[in-house]
């Protein structure tokens, strides 16, 4: 069997950086170490860190129970109030937010209560929740064409559009086009889809067109992985999403 490995396979820059920051804390002997939510959406990595004593803080209530230690913010980022809470409790903070996500926080925080912010992304996704937490302007999350067509907003102040970094680039442009038809005053459009995502999606699409089977390896809760799977499945019917080698039924490959 010929096996093609995508050039863009592996952790992206932001995830690699976040995981390395956790390992650095372990090496420096920091104790206890917490990550605010799983450091990345990859259960294998999370399990291996847990074995090294890294614990996960699941909620703001859990955070309130901590009296010592280091809390690491993951690559998806968190709302501003989480930083404030960590500091208020006298805990050490290591910010592993991906710089590309941080850039979105910086963009949206410039808009005031008279303005409006649209996040093109998936409601409830941790990155989107994080971005919302840096907005003083009213926020609308738009993830589908129907939602885009329904949007009217207030029509006063500035209207800023940003994207969740892992959103499909083409879909982002399509949704912006729809919004521009109902709101001709949109000027501040920030195409904050991460190029790592875009490059990976187009490489995966091209490979999927040529191969008999496509295997997408990644966490079962990862938005990146899910989107890659959907893109590949459209091009190659024998596309499988696996998390570890145990999930792969080699007999099913043609
Ligand atoms: Fe990764 Fe950061 Fe892009 S976490 S997908 S490099 S936004």
Q: How would you characterize the largest beta sheet?
A: 4 strands, parallel
Our estimate of the beta-strand percent is 15-25%
Would you identify the regions where 5 or more consecutive residues have pLDDT less than 50? none
Please state the structural category: alpha/beta
Radius of gyration: 20 Å
Q: Which molecules are bound besides the chains?
A: FE3-S4 cluster
Terminal CA distance? 10 Å
Q: Can you describe what's shown?
A:
- This protein is of the alpha/beta class and 254 residues long.
- 41% of the residues lie in helices and 15% in strands.
- It has helices at residues 13-27, 43-51, 60-64, 80-88, 99-108, 126-132, 145-150, 169-182, 195-210, 223-235; strands at 33-36, 55-57, 70-73, 92-95, 116-120, 139-142, 159-163, 188-189, 214-217, 239-242.
- The strands form three sheets. Strands 2-1-3-4 form a four-stranded parallel β-sheet, with helices on both faces. The chain has a four-stranded parallel β-sheet with strand order 6-5-7-8, with helices on both faces.
- α10 (223-235) links the parallel β9 and β10.
- α9 runs parallel beside α10.
- The longest helix has 16 residues, at 195-210.
- The model has no long low-confidence stretch (mean pLDDT 93).
- Bound molecules: FE3-S4 cluster.
- Residues 12-15, 75, 98, 100-101, 165-166, 194, 196-197 line the site of FE3-S4 cluster.
- The site of FE3-S4 cluster (F3S) has 13 residues, from α1, α5 and α9.
């Amino acid at each position: 069997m010929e096996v093609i490995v995508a050039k863009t396979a592996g952790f992206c820059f932001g995830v690699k950086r976040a995981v390395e920051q956790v390992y650095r804390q372990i090496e420096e002997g920091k104790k206890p170490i917490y990550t605010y939510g799983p450091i990345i959406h990859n259960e294998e990595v999370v399990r291996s860190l847990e074995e090294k004593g890294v614990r996960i803080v699941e909620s703001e209530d859990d955070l309130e129970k901590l009296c010592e230690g280091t809390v690491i913010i993951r690559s998806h980022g968190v709302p501003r109030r989480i930083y404030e809470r960590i500091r208020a409790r006298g805990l050490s903070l290591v910010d592993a937010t991906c710089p590309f996500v941080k850039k979105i926080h910086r963009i949206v925080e410039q808009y005031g209560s008279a303005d409006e912010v649209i996040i093109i992304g998936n409601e409830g996704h941790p990155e989107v929740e994080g971005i919302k937490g840096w907005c003083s302007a009213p926020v609308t999350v738009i993830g589908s064409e129907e939602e885009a067509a329904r949007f009217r907003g207030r029509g006063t102040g500035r209207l800023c559009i940003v994207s969740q970094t892992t959103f499909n680039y083409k879909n982002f442009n399509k949704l912006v086009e729809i919004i521009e038809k109902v709101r001709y005053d949109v000027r501040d459009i920030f195409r904050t889809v991460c190029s790592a995502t875009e490059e990976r999606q187009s490489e995966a699409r091209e490979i999927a067109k040529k191969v008999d089977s496509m295997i997408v390896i990644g966490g079962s809760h990862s938005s990146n992985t899910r989107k890659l799977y959907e893109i590949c499945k459209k091009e190659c019917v024998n596309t499988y999403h696996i998390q570890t080698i145990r999930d792969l039924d080699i007999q099913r490959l043609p």
